[in-house]
Specification:
With about 300 residues, the protein is of the alpha+beta class. Helices cover about 55% and strands about 15% of the residues. The chain has six helices and eight strands; from the N terminus they run H-H-H-H-E-E-H-H-E-E-E-E-E-E. The strands form two sheets. A six-stranded antiparallel sheet has the order 3-8-4-5-6-7. Strand 5 and strand 6 form a beta hairpin. Helix 4 packs across helix 5. The longest helix has about 100 residues. The termini are far apart.
Length: about 300
């Protein structure tokens, strides 16, 4: 009987050729050592029976599985970190997009509000100009009616002599105003006013190339070193009242009542005045007959 007959075999079926060769080599070396020892011993010695624990494929598989598990865990951690990074980027992009959308909406709302305000301003300005023009037409009609009434009443026999005397005085005064050139502050006021003829009329305008009625009067008096209020009814409330038959260059003409005038201009002599009339005419020099004023005040 062979000396290796009692060695249990640890071989398992269906092993790969490389593993079987490895195990065969290990087993062959061990068996050879045992055979040599047996041959050197006594001839009648008992056969040695020894069980040799060989390395199992299970331990090798366990090590391989551990390495795979570690690699899989590392890959999972890397993927999780990548997912978190992508999620952070997505949240930042969403936040920025939300902020940009809010800014764009706020800017759009601001522009829309500005456009509405501008439209309302233009509409109000147009309505104001139309009201001024209507008031001017009404004033001209009222003044002409009053002048016609006064003229009719002055035709009476009892007052004919006094009326003639008054008319003569007025004519003389008006004739003097037509021929006498303004001097001093009046000359500065008249010169400034005439220099603006042809400029545009703009509601609220104070120059240098566009005016409203009170803005032009205020600037003309400022050129002579005299400060006036900005509003027409305030300007017509200053100084002393003078009759239209006793005007002097530099006097302020007003339309409406003295404390509630809606339009003012500057008398420049020769039966004419300069005023910023309306958006259609701009700054003009016209005869008193074109649009007779309601009254006049003298500041100088």
């Amino acid at each position: 009987m062979s000396h290796t007959a009692h060695i249990p075999s640890h071989r398992k079926p269906r092993r790969s050729a490389s593993k079987l060769a490895l195990r065969a080599g290990v087993a062959g070396g061990v068996l050879g050592t045992i055979a040599v020892a047996g041959a050197a011993g006594p001839a009648n010695a008992e056969p040695v029976t020894e069980t040799i624990e060989m390395p199992t494929l299970g331990s090798l598989a366990a090590g391989s599985n551990l390495a795979s598990a570690v690699a899989a865990s590392a890959e999972a951690s890397q993927q999780e970190a990548l997912d978190q990074s992508l999620q952070t980027l997505e949240q930042a992009a969403l936040k920025k997009a939300s902020q940009d959308a809010k800014k764009a909406k706020a800017e759009a709302d601001r522009k829309a509000a500005a456009e509405r305000a501008e439209k309302a301003r233009l509409k109000a300005e147009k309505e104001r100009e139309e009201a001024e023009e209507a008031a001017e037409r009404a004033s001209r009609t009222s003044t002409r009616t009053q002048l016609a009434t006064n003229s009719s009443s002055n035709d009476g026999g009892s007052s004919s002599s006094s009326s003639s005397s008054s008319d003569s005085g007025s004519s003389a005064s008006d004739s003097g105003s037509r021929t006498q050139a303004p001097t001093g502050s009046a000359a500065s006021i008249v010169a400034f006013a005439r220099a603006q003829v042809g400029d545009a009329y703009v509601s609220g305008g104070t120059g240098p190339n566009s005016w409203d009625c009170s803005g032009l009067v205020q600037a003309a008096y400022r050129a002579a070193g005299i400060d006036l209020p900005r509003i027409s009814y305030q300007q017509s409330s200053m100084g002393s009242s003078v009759s239209l038959g006793n005007l002097q260059p530099g006097d302020i003409l007003y339309w409406g009542s003295r404390s509630g005038s809606y339009h003012v201009a500057i008398y420049v002599g020769g039966g004419k005045y300069v005023g910023a009339q309306n958006s259609s005419t701009g700054v003009v020099e016209r005869s008193l007959d074109w649009d007779p004023p309601s009254g006049a005040v003298r500041i100088l």
